Amino acid sequence: MENYTMEGRTYRYYGQEAPLYPFGYGLSYTTFSYWDLVLSPSVLPVCANLTVSVVLKNTGTRDGEEVVQLYLRWEQSSVPVPRWQLVAFRRVAVLAGQETKLSFQVLAEQRAVWAQGWRLEPGTFTLFAGGQQPGQQTRAPSEVLSAQFSVTGTARPLSGC
User: Fold this and answer.
1) Residue 155, domain extent
2) Rounded to two decimals, what is the model's pTM?
3) For residue range 11-50, what is the model confidence (pLDDT) as tens digits?
4) Which CATH number do you get for residue 48?
């Protein structure tokens, strides 16, 4: 084998084709609603971590569990990258009619790209938060919120942070 590219060989690099059973696939006996996605800071230095918070509410009549998923998308990169990358997830039990605020950390190393070594690049990124992958078609409704943030500075090796 001489071609080691992952394009077309794993769901992360399928392009516009969606996987048959994406991460988090399944049904619930209740429904959930997401709102108030906050990224802090919205502009951060190349080596800094991002803090994310989102509010999750069980809008159904039964208690339930939701797998809250965070995905990261590079808006421009010097090398090929996945459509989006899972950077955090958490299973949360929420009583019927109740809500909870969740906080996550997205580490700088999760934004690193492989270019003859791991490195961090400045640019614009989109973060998605919800109960499924962005753009996933399901029979049960599930929201996916999105927000953008910017990374400033110059590209540098991950080991230089």
Assistant:
1) 32-160
2) 0.84
3) 555 556 666 666 666 677 899 999 999 999 999 999 999 9
4) 2.60.40.10
